[in-house]
User: Fold this.
Amino acid sequence: MIELNNVSKTYANGVNALNNIDIFIEKGEFVYVVGPSGAGKSSFIKMIYREERPTEGSIQIHGTDLMTLKEKHVPFLRRKIGVVFQDFKLLPKLSVFENVAFALEVIEEPKDVIRRRVMEVLDIVKLKNKARFLPDELSGGEQQRVSIARAVVNNPRVVIADEPTGNLDPDTSWEIMEILENINRNGTTVLMATHNREIVNAIKKRVIAIEGGRVVRDEPKGDYGYER
Assistant:
């Protein structure tokens, strides 16, 4: 599903964010990406959905070569990838329903399809009864659930979660993880960057650890592995 070959990233200011990364992620895997701040996790995540491009190497997502992909085709790639951010990135003046529906309106789905699919995913994240609420009327956990609903409404092949529990209390974090696990059980590949030691150690999945821009561990059922 995701393949990185000899990927390096050097920014204009000379910072080497990633060095010779080789990673292969199969369809349906759930993978944690861990490591200290500044290790290169964010650069790695951003390259998967083509917000950043590598300086060297190649990246393929479900057979699509991101290095040769034309800019006009990037939006089509992103329709196959759902992204969940730490700070939610909801549109403040749109309702819960409208925030989730926006992803389908962009691709001009029929209104009846939009309504049916949006209500389906809101049911999955247990927010069907708050479809008409605005984001600022929701708790942080509820806003993150809207973000997840928006990420999966297109039935993406991959969901990338960038610190999805970073701004949430422990109980709410476990609720978010339950939703992500359910999405994964339905066949979607999940790639999650996190600093949440408790979750990584309790919910055993593949762990890729990045330090100094390099992969230092890749374990099928790993631990977080860093001291507090």
Q: What stands out?
A: The chain has seven helices and ten strands. The mean pLDDT is 91. The chain has two domains: 1-80+156-228, 94-155. The CA atoms of residues 48 and 60 lie 9 Å apart.
